[in-house]
Specification:
By secondary structure, the protein is an alpha/beta fold. It has 20 helices and 28 strands. The strands form seven sheets. It has a seven-stranded parallel β-sheet, sandwiched between helices. A six-stranded parallel β-sheet has the order 15-24-23-16-22-21. A five-stranded antiparallel β-sheet has the order 2-1-4-3-5. Residues 115-146 have low confidence and may be disordered.
Length: 650
C-alpha cells in the first residue's frame, strides 16, 4: 500500500463579513504547515479571498473531497498570538464578525516588493496543534488587575515635560513607549518634539499619513524591537507590540478622534489600549490637562493623580459682548472691534495668537434672502456651508452645489450667510492688515501633503509669532508654543443642540485651550450671552463643584459614566425599511425578558430621515447578560452597533 503524502489542515478566517456565524473558521489543506497569523489567499465559493491562518494540524488520513487547498502565502506569520487573542476579544465585545475585525491589523494585504522576507522556518511539531486548543489557551490566559489611571497636569508645557520623562525611561529600560494622540497633525508635532528633546531615542510616527509600505516597515520595526517610542493615532493600537513598557494616551476625553464611528466595526481606541495594557500587565496612563467629568466622580472606580488646569490671575478669561457690536454696526461682525484691538496688542508684543472657530469655510449656514429657507444637502440634509468660490458644500458628505446655486424652495439666487468659518476669519484679518504669518489649520489645508508639511514647518520653526486660525477639533491637542491670546468664536454654538454631552464638552474646551496660554495670557470669548454661567460661574468656582452638577444630571438621566449605552443604528435594506428593521430589533430584545436592562423605544434622530435608532442601557459594573450578547451578535449587517455613542442625534 503506497504511503500517503503528509498534508496539513489549516484553519483560516476569511477577511470578509460573515454575519450570523458563531464560528468564522474554515478548514483548508496544505502540503506544508503555515504559521498562525499568516495572510494567505483562499478559494471561497466562487471568489478568491484573503484570509488569516489560526493554526495547523496534520491530517490523520487522506484529504476529504470537500476540502480545498490554500493558495499563496502573502505575509508569513504577520499577527502575533496576542494580536489574535485581541481580535477574538474585539469581535465579541463589538459584536462584529472576526473577519472584518482582523482587517484592522493589516496596513496592507500583501508584502511590498522591496521589503525583504523575514520568514523563519520552524519545526513541524511546533505547529502541530489545532486551533481549538489555541483559542482555549488564549481565553484562559490569566487576567491581571487593570493598571489604567488618569494623570492630570496643569499646562501643556508640563504635559510635554512629562512625556519627555517617560520617553527617557523607555530608552533607559529598553521598553517601548506607545503614545496615542487624537489627531494626525498632533502625532507629527509630538514626534518632532520628542526627537529634539531625546536625540538618543528612536522615535517613529504611525498614522494614516504613512503609505502602506511605510506602515509595513514600521510594523516590522516594532516587531523586531528596534524602536523606543511610537507616536500614533487610534490605528496604532493594532501594531504588533512585543515589549511594551507604557501606553500613554493624550486627551483621552476627546472621544470624537479616538472612536472609529464612520465605518464598521465601530471601536474606541482608548478601550482597546486599556485591554492591551491589562493583557500585558503594563501601565496605561491617560494624560490630560482638562479631563472629563469621570475624573471627578468619586463613586466610580478610577485611579486619579495630579491637578488639572484652572483659570487664575495668570490665565484670565474675558468675554466680548457681541450685542454691543451689533447695536453699533447693525450687523454681526466676524471679528468685533474689541477682539481686533486685542489681536493687535498681542501681535505687537509679539506673541503667538490662536483663533478658534467651529468649522471651516466662509459661513456656518446660509438662508434664502426671499423665503428664509436654509440651504441643505440633498443627500444627507445637513446645513450647507458657503465656500470661497461661491459654491455651497456639505461638510459631512462632501456634496458641492453648482457655481450659481438657487434656492430649492423658491428658486431665488441670493442668500444671507450667518456665522463664521476659517476662511471668513482669514479674510477679516487680511482686511485689517494682519495677513502676515497666518496659519490656517482645518481639514482643507491638511488633506494635501504639501499643505500638511507647510503647516508642520510653520509651527516647528516659525520666523515670527504666528496667528493660527483653526477649528476646535484640529487645535484641541496640538502642542503649540505658549500663546499670548486665544480667541473663541461662537464657542456656545453647540449648546443649542439637544445632546447630553454639549455642556461637558464646552467645559472641557475652555480649560483645554486655557492650558495653552503663557503666563499673563488671555482667553477671549465672543458671545451674545456674556452673563451666562459658562463664562462667569464655571470659570470662578472649583472644578469639583461644576463637575458635581454635571454628574448629578447624568446620574438622574441614566447616562454615561453611570450607565452604559449600546446604540443600534438601523439601515434600510432591499425590500425593507429602517423602521421595519428597528421594530424587529426592538421586539427581539424585548423577548429576552431582561429586567436589569432598559430597552428604550425606537426614535428617529435629528437629520436622519430614514435611519431609526434603538438604545440599550444598563448600569456600570453590571455584567452584560450572555443572552443579550448572543442576540446582538446574531443581528444582520443592516444594524450597526455602537458602544457609548458620542451623540444620540445620530
Amino acid at each position: 500500500m503506497p504511503k500517503l503524502p503528509i498534508v496539513y489542515r489549516i484553519e483560516v478566517v476569511p477577511l470578509t463579513p460573515l454575519y450570523g456565524r458563531r464560528d468564522p473558521r474554515f478548514s483548508y489543506a496544505s502540503p506544508t504547515p503555515i504559521l498562525p497569523g499568516s495572510l494567505v489567499s483562499i478559494s471561497f465559493g466562487r471568489r478568491t479571498l484573503i484570509g488569516v491562518t489560526l493554526g495547523s494540524a496534520r491530517l490523520p488520513g487522506p484529504v476529504p473531497e470537500w476540502m480545498k487547498y490554500v493558495g499563496v502565502t502573502l505575509l508569513p506569520s504577520w499577527l502575533t498570538a496576542d494580536q489574535i487573542a485581541l481580535a477574538w476579544e474585539l469581535s465579541e465585545r463589538l459584536y462584529a464578525p472576526l473577519g472584518i475585525v482582523l482587517k484592522l491589523f493589516f496596513p496592507l494585504q500583501r508584502k511590498p516588493r522591496t521589503a525583504q522576507s523575514t520568514t523563519e522556518s520552524l519545526a513541524v511539531d511546533v505547529l502541530s496543534q489545532t486551533t481549538q486548543p489555541l483559542r482555549k489557551a488564549i481565553r484562559r490566559k490569566k487576567r491581571t488587575h487593570p493598571l489604567s489611571f488618569m494623570e492630570a497636569v496643569p499646562s501643556d508645557s508640563r504635559l510635554l515635560d512629562r512625556l519627555i520623562a517617560l520617553g527617557g525611561q523607555a530608552v533607559k529600560k529598553q521598553k517601548l513607549l506607545c503614545l496615542l494622540v487624537p489627531e494626525v497633525l498632533s502625532a507629527e508635532l509630538y514626534t518632532k518634539k520628542l526627537q529634539t528633546a531625546l536625540p538618543q531615542a528612536r522615535v517613529c510616527c504611525l498614522s494614516s499619513r504613512r503609505t502602506p509600505k511605510e506602515q509595513y516597515e514600521i510594523f516590522q520595526a516594532i516587531r523586531s524591537q528596534t524602536l523606543d517610542i511610537v507616536v500614533g493615532t487610534r490605528q496604532a493600537v493594532f501594531a504588533p507590540y512585543v515589549s511594551l513598557g507604557n501606553i500613554v494616551i493624550i486627551d483621552s476625553e476627546k472621544q470624537l478622534s479616538y472612536t472609529q464611528w464612520e465605518m464598521a466595526p465601530r471601536y474606541d481606541a482608548v478601550e482597546i489600549a486599556e485591554w492591551i495594557a491589562q493583557r500585558q500587565a503594563i501601565p496605561c496612563i491617560k494624560l490630560s490637562v482638562a479631563p472629563g467629568i469621570r475624573y471627578f466622580a468619586e463613586d466610580l472606580p478610577l485611579k486619579r493623580t495630579g491637578k488639572p488646569f484652572v483659570f487664575s490671575q495668570k490665565h484670565a478669561l474675558t468675554t466680548i459682548d457681541l450685542r454691543k457690536s451689533y447695536a453699533r454696526h447693525r450687523t454681526s461682525p466676524v471679528l468685533s472691534a474689541d477682539l481686533i484691538a486685542a489681536i493687535r496688542r498681542a501681535h505687537a508684543q509679539p506673541a503667538a495668537i490662536l483663533i478658534l472657530v467651529k468649522q471651516r469655510g466662509v459661513s456656518r449656514f446660509s438662508l434664502c434672502a426671499k423665503c428664509h429657507t436654509p440651504q441643505r444637502c440633498p443627500k444627507c440634509q445637513t446645513i450647507l456651508s458657503e465656500m470661497k468660490d461661491g459654491r455651497f458644500r456639505c461638510l459631512t458628505c462632501g456634496y458641492q452645489s453648482a457655481l450659481f446655486p438657487a434656492c430649492a424652495s423658491c428658486g431665488h439666487m441670493h442668500f444671507k450667510s450667518f456665522g463664521a468659518g476659517t476662511q471668513a476669519i482669514e479674510r477679516a484679518l487680511q482686511r485689517e492688515g494682519l495677513d502676515n504669518a497666518i496659519i490656517v489649520i482645518d481639514r482643507d489645508t491638511t488633506q494635501l501633503k504639501s499643505g500638511f508639511q507647510k503647516i508642520i514647518a510653520a509651527l516647528t520653526e516659525p520666523s515670527q509669532p504666528p496667528i493660527i486660525i483653526a477649528t476646535y477639533e484640529t487645535a484641541y491637542s496640538l502642542p503649540l508654543p505658549p500663546l499670548g491670546l486665544i480667541a473663541l468664536i461662537e464657542p456656545d454654538q453647540g449648546l443649542f443642540y439637544p445632546d447630553y454631552q454639549t455642556e461637558e464638552r464646552l467645559w472641557r474646551e475652555l480649560r483645554r485651550f486655557g492650558a495653552k496660554l503663557r503666563t499673563n495670557g488671555t482667553l477671549s470669548v465672543q458671545t451674545f450671552e456674556p452673563e451666562s454661567a459658562f463664562w462667569t460661574t464655571w470659570v470662578q468656582q472649583p472644578l469639583e463643584t461644576t463637575a458635581e452638577g454635571l454628574l448629578e444630571e447624568r446620574r438622574s438621566l441614566r447616562y454615561p459614566p453611570y450607565y452604559h449605552l449600546i446604540q443600534l443604528e438601523c439601515y434600510p435594506q432591499k425590500g425593507s425599511t429602517s423602521l421595519v428593521a428597528a421594530e424587529q430589533a426592538e421586539a427581539l430584545l424585548h423577548r429576552l425578558v431582561l429586567p436589569e436592562i432598559d430597552i428604550l423605544p425606537k426614535y428617529l434622530p435629528f437629520n436622519r430621515k430614514n435611519r431609526y435608532h434603538v438604545l440599550i442601557r444598563y448600569p456600570v459594573g453590571h455584567a452584560l447578560p450572555e443572552k443579550l450578547r448572543l442576540c446582538l451578535t446574531a443581528l444582520g449587517p443592516n444594524i450597526r452597533i455602537t458602544h457609548n455613542p458620542l451623540s444620540l442625534l445620530g
